[in-house]
């Protein structure tokens, strides 16, 4: 059967949601969507805009004709009830066109009010099968079962070009109704998981609604192959799919006498290859060694007093060693793994910033430290009743922002890592020489960064390696900001023949439990490193080991990139690994 309705036109991304609602009779109606209410226009053998034009013209012309006849009859004193055949035809046409126009425009208008008034369409749909959502995303009553379904049957939608948005067939009519309810705003998208109790189905429905609302296709963003239940309430809200990031392996990294294969999730060509080369240079030189200097996650609330004197009194109280044990008992109640290490205060007028530092076992520890801080603030209320807690975080912590406090005091794990790279390895593997590397490091990583006013950025590309490992192992990628703080040092040793290289990273914030670490892919990468989950024998040793592996990998990355720059190879290797020889225009089509 022919169709007189068009497929929905893809909306421009800038089109507001409202535009979608304004569209009339333009959605797909096929045998998969019997929920669509039949309209008089469905039966007419003309395209919709022509049918509308015909009825409009008919309505106004017969109305004009009848008014004329009415005036003539009054002038000529002819009784109004005496009608000619042409007048009868005109009256019938007027009524018919009026009914058509009312059915087409008026009822939809009324229905829009009904839909808005129905606060929970979901329940209506569940309990009353006669309520359905029409193609204009409005609530309508479904035709009784005995009405012929013929009016709903139209041919399959024509194939859209690949770049056009796609209306994906959903698993059931019920899903179709839910999608429509989300599109028209009667069901909040965020409630899908709790209402359906099926995370995968919720994601599929949300995704389809999003495509319809934006007019943009999500083809290419996979939906299948992911456990949506595993992220619920922990990692991501309102999922519609997942982004695929390739994971490459660099290594083996020989660190503290053990070999590690380093998983790196990245889309930057050259990065894994370069880190791999650094690992090789370290390996051939006998390996790298690391030392964990500090392990303490921090949280710093801001509290306010009426006077600076009172703020200072609390500072002295908190920093007094005699009070530490009592405060630690209160703080440590937050978790069996949280152990208060120290409290550092800073005053700004009447405001006090209190930086609590604690060990957090194998967790990165933000939740844990925040709970401990909350306990202490409640405890302080008895002696400092005039203390006004402005915020649990006052930015003296400092989380996910470049800050000197992390660079100087450390946050999370502070690690230093070193290696001595032999002269022949520098020449054969790194294709440069020691003196050039030492000079470049001084002028670029030290003096150059000083010229740039760097804060913790005294390195070539620590952020590259840190981010790639963070993403692969389920760390919080935003903490790359302070975790990438690093100073790279290089020095000629052994009579100037060999290269001593070190990296010092004071704020590596990693965990092997909690957050994204428990997801399947990320767990697999942690497992590869031998640090998956919680360490039963010695809580905290997995996360500390992970921090040293991050530092060791940064060492490899620094070594390789600095060598490439010293040897003038950087642009050449990027052109080789970072610029595909594929015809981009063909790939795009
Ligand atoms: P974070 O504090 O990094 O946000 P979470 O609080 O989400 O981490 O996760 C840590 C949870 O894991 C806590 O409930 C803690 O009791 C539990 N846990 C189990 N084993 C360990 C361990 N070895 N180290 C730290 N936490 C652990």
TrEMBL record:
Q: Which UniProt keywords apply?
A: Endoplasmic reticulum, Isoprene biosynthesis, Membrane, NADP, Oxidoreductase, Transmembrane, Transmembrane helix
Q: Which reaction is the catalytic activity of this chain?
A: (R)-mevalonate + 2 NADP(+) + CoA = (3S)-3-hydroxy-3-methylglutaryl-CoA + 2 NADPH + 2 H(+)
Q: What is its EC number?
A: 1.1.1.34
Transmembrane region(s): 48-67, 88-107
Region ranges (Disordered): 1-40
Write down the InterPro entries for this protein, in alphabetical order.
HMG_CoA_Rdtase (IPR002202), HMG_CoA_Rdtase_cat_sf (IPR023074), HMG_CoA_Rdtase_CS (IPR023076), HMG_CoA_Rdtase_eu_arc (IPR004554), HMG_CoA_Rdtase_N (IPR023282), HMG_CoA_Rdtase_NAD(P)-bd_sf (IPR009023), HMG_CoA_Rdtase_sub-bd_dom_sf (IPR009029)
Task: Family membership, please give it.
Answer: Belongs to the HMG-CoA reductase family.
Q: What species is this protein from?
A: Hevea brasiliensis (Para rubber tree)
Question: What subcellular locations does the record give?
Answer: Endoplasmic reticulum membrane; Plastid membrane
Q: What is this protein called?
A: 3-hydroxy-3-methylglutaryl coenzyme A reductase
- Is Cell wall biogenesis/degradation one of the keywords? no
According to Swiss-Prot or TrEMBL, what is its membrane topology?
Multi-pass membrane protein
Query: Which NCBIfam families has this protein been placed in?
Result: HMG_CoA_R_NADP
- Pathway listed for it? Metabolic intermediate biosynthesis; (R)-mevalonate biosynthesis; (R)-mevalonate from acetyl-CoA: step 3/3
């Amino acid at each position: 059967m022919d169709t007189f309705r068009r497929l929905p036109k893809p909306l421009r991304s800038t089109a507001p949601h409202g535009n979608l609602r304004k569209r009339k009779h333009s959605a797909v109606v096929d045998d998969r969507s019997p929920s669509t209410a039949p309209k008089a226009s469905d039966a007419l053998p003309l395209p919709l805009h022509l049918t509308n034009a015909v009825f409009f013209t008919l309505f106004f012309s017969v109305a004009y004709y009848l008014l004329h006849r009415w005036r003539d009859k009054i002038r000529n004193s002819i009784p109004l009830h005496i009608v000619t055949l042409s007048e009868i035809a005109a009256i019938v046409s007027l009524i018919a066109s009026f009914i058509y126009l009312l059915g087409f425009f008026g009822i939809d208008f009324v229905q829009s009010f009904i839909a808005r008034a129905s606060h929970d369409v979901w329940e209506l749909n569940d309990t009353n099968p006669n309520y359905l959502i029409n193609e204009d995303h409005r609530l309508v009553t479904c035709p009784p079962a005995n009405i012929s379904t013929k009016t709903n049957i139209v041919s399959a939608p024509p194939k859209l070009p690949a770049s056009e948005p796609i209306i994906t067939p959903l698993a059931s009519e019920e899903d179709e109704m839910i999608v429509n309810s989300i599109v028209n705003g009667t069901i909040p998208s965020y409630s899908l998981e709790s209402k359906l109790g099926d995370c995968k189905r919720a994601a599929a429905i949300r995704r389809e609604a999003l495509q319809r609302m934006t007019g943009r296709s999500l083809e290419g963003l996979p939906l299948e192959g992911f456990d949506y239940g595993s992220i619920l309430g922990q990692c991501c809200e309102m999922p519609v799919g997942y982004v695929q990031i390739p994971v490459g392996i660099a290594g083996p990294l020989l660190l503290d006498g053990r070999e590690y294969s380093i998983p790196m999730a990245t889309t930057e060509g050259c990065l894994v290859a370069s880190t791999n080369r650094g690992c090789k240079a370290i390996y051939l030189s006998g390996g790298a060694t690391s030392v964990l200097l500090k392990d303490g996650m921090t949280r710093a609330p801001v509290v306010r007093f009426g006077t600076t004197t009172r703020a200072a009194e609390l500072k002295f109280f908190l920093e007094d060693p005699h009070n530490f044990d009592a405060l630690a008992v209160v703080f440590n109640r937050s978790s069996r793994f949280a152990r208060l290490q120290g409290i550092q205060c800073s005053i700004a007028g009447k405001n006090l910033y209190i930086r609590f530092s604690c060990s957090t076992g194998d967790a990165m520890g933000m939740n844990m430290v925040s709970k401990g801080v909350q306990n202490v603030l409640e405890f302080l209320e008895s002696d400092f009743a005039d203390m006004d807690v402005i915020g649990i975080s006052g930015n003296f912590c400092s989380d996910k922002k470049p800050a000197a406090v992390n660079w100087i005091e450390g946050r999370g794990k502070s690690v230093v890592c070193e290696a001595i790279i032999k002269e022949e390895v520098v020449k054969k593997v790194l294709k440069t020489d020691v003196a050039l590397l030492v000079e470049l490091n001084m002028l670029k990583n030290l003096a150059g960064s000083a010229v740039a006013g760097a804060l913790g950025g005294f390195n070539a590309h620590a952020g590259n390696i840190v981010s790639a490992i963070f993403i692969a192992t389920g760390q919080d990628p935003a903490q790359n900001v302070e975790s990438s703080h690093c100073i790279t040092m290089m020095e000629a040793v052994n009579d100037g023949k060999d290269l001593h290289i070190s990296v010092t990273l004071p704020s590596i914030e990693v965990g092997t439990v909690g957050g994204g670490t428990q997801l399947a892919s990320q767990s697999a990468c942690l497992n590869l490193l031998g640090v998956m989950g919680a360490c039963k024998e010695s809580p905290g040793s997995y996360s500390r080991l992970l921090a040293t592996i991050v530092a060791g990998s940064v060492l490899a990355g620094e070594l390789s990139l600095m060598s490439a720059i010293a040897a003038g190879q950087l642009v050449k290797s990027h052109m080789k690994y970072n610029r595909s020889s594929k015809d981009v225009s063909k790939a795009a089509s």
